[in-house]
From TrEMBL:
PANTHER family: HTH-TYPE TRANSCRIPTIONAL REGULATOR XRE (PTHR46558:SF11), TRACRIPTIONAL REGULATORY PROTEIN-RELATED-RELATED (PTHR46558). SMART domains: HTH_XRE (SM00530). GO terms for molecular function: DNA binding; iron ion binding; oxidoreductase activity. This is Helix-turn-helix domain-containing protein. Residues 10-64 form the HTH cro/C1-type domain.
Length: 198
């Protein structure tokens, strides 16, 4: 751990949050002289303080230890680059439009890799009025179910969270084209391209 890099990052993050050294110190129940020492690179935070420091500055502990935030490129938030993440422990579902370090239940999550639909994970799409009516003939038990259906178009995403013991179905407003996704709690993410026919 490079104390100068860590200190420079702490200083930068503190200023971004418009906090004084005393405000950070008070939030962590330590002396403001300690914060000053870190920011000047004369020492590094003790491991026992990293969690509080992470919470106060709003950054991951790993980034503090690296002394760098490693930001994405400015144009990284493109809907074509959407990634879904699902926690297998609590069922939490997240998405990002660029590279992201996402964790849940104390574990880092890898982005789900979409597979093309197959006969076990087939999405039936019917055009009903101004909507796509999407159904999936799939088990919906607590152990094995479709956890969400999402439709991603050029500039937007429609996300529908599903729960065990309900039907795997939803209605989505028609758009010219996009990608339909469905997530199976046991078999991962499935996708299908959709194009409006009329």
């Amino acid at each position: 751990m490079d104390c100068r890099k860590v200190g420079a990052l702490i200083l930068r993050l503190r200023k971004e949050k418009h906090l004084t050294q005393k405000e950070v110190a008070d939030a962590m129940h330590i002396s403001d002289k300690t914060i000053s020492k870190w920011e000047r690179g004369l020492g590094c935070p003790d491991v026992s303080l990293l969690r509080d420091l992470s919470h106060t500055l709003g950054v991951n502990i790993e980034q503090i230890l690296n002394g760098d935030l490693d930001p994405n490129e400015a144009d990284g938030g493109n809907m074509k680059n959407i990634k879904f993440y699902a926690c297998s422990y609590c069922g939490n579902v997240m998405s990002s439009t660029g590279d992201a370090g996402i964790s849940c239940c104390g574990r880092k999550l890898a982005p789900l890799i979409a597979q093309r639909e197959n006969e076990d994970h087939h999405m039936i799409v019917e055009e009903v009025e101004d909507d796509y009516y999407v159904t999936i003939q799939h088990e919906m038990s607590r152990e094995h179910f479709i956890s969400f259906i999402a439709f991603v178009a050029y500039d937007r995403m429609i996300f529908v969270k599903l729960y065990p013991e309900q039907n795997a179905e939803t209605r989505i407003p028609k758009m010219y084209r996009g990608t339909l996704y469905a997530h199976c709690s046991q078999h991962g993410l499935w996708s299908r391209e959709i194009r409006k026919t009329r």
